[in-house]
Amino acid sequence: GENVEQHPSTLSVQEGDSAVIKCTYSDSASNYFPWYKQELGKRPQLIIDIRSNVGEKKDQRIAVTLNKTAKHFSLHITETQPEDSAVYFCAATYNQGGKLIFGQGTELSVKP
Amino acid sequence: KAGVTQTPRYLIKTRGQQVTLSCSPISGHRSVSWYQQTPGQGLQFLFEYFSETQRNKGNFPGRFSGRQFSNSRSEMNVSTLELGDSALYLCASSLQGAAYEQYFGPGTRLTVT
Asked: Residue B112 gets which letter from DSSP?
């Protein structure tokens, strides 16, 4: 079916530590994998994305890795800060890129 | 440039009624997707419109429908409202569709009593 599994559902880290969120998808034709951050009461905002022809992408403290063979991708946040606290969603395209299916979300809490 | 806007921001309806939500995409964006967000189910894809045509549809009943106008503004309609339809409804616009960067609107919070 069209689903994206995301783990963990909650994650608590100390400020300065790293955080890793993992997602798996089922369609080998999926070719676009964005990550969104949603702060409480706000709209989801794209923080980083990766396409299937790339294995890793980095933007300052945020990086995403993609393993097409295993059909999983991960978000890595280094040197976490309290303002990183939010719900993070992964997503993958399905139906030949026509749909964006989201994972269930990970609530990240960064404790000062 | 102006972001994605949605109206109204909040709605309270009674079971059995119908509701229409509106989404204005970023200027130049031709694709509008709709999502239902609930605490238990996360973000679920409803449908996507591109150049006034519905290109993709999620697994929602026929009570959920939509349309897109020539200026790319989109509306979503839910008929015969049920309690379970209470949710935040988000629209997102992009240049060409799901495989491109999507920008979300602030959402419409629908409460069905």
From this structure: E
DSSP of B19-37 = EEEEEEPPTT--EEEEEEE
CA distance B93 to chain A (A): 12
Whether A43 sits inside 8 A of B106 (CB atoms) is: yes
Angstrom distance (rounded) from CA B67 to CA B49: 7
The pLDDT profile of chain A, 112 residues, written as one tens digit per residue, is 789 999 999 999 999 999 999 999 999 999 999 999 999 999 999 999 999 888 999 999 999 999 999 999 999 999 999 999 999 999 999 887 789 999 999 999 999 9
The closest CB to that of B99, out of A42, A97, A101, belongs to A97
Tokens of A38: 């949603």
Contact A90, A35 (CB under 8 A): yes
Ordered DSSP codes for B68-82: E-TTS-EEEEE-S--
